[in-house]
Amino acid sequence: MTLDGATVEVVRSYLIAAAEEMRTTLIRTAFNPVIYEVLDFGISLYDEKLDLIAEAPGLTFFLGANDYSLQKGVEYVGAENLYPGDIVMLNYPYWNAAHAYDATLFAPVFLPDEAAPDADGTLVGYVCVRAHWMDLGAKDAGYVLDSTDVHQEGMLFPGTKVFSRGKAVRDIHELIRFNSRMPDVVLGDLHAQVSAIRTGERRLIEILQKFGKPAVDEAVAVIRAHSEQNTIDALAALPQGSWTAVDWMDDDGISEDPIRMQVTVTIEDGTFTVDFAGSAPAAKGPVNMPFGATIAICKVVLKNLTSPEQPSNAGTTVPLRVLAEPGTLFHAVYPAPTFTLWTGIVALELIYKALAQGMPERLAASTGGDVPGFMMVGDHPDTGEFFAISNNDPVGWGGTPEHDGLDATIHISESTVRSTPIEVLEARSGMLFERLEMRTDSGGAGKHRGGTGLQRDIRFVSPGEFLSVIKKTRTKPWALEGGLEPDPNQVVVFPGTDREERVSTKRVPVQPGDLIRLLTAGGGGHGDPAERDPALVRRDVSEGYVSREAAASVYGVELDE
Question: For the whole prediction, is pTM greater than 0.90?
Answer without folding.
Answer: yes
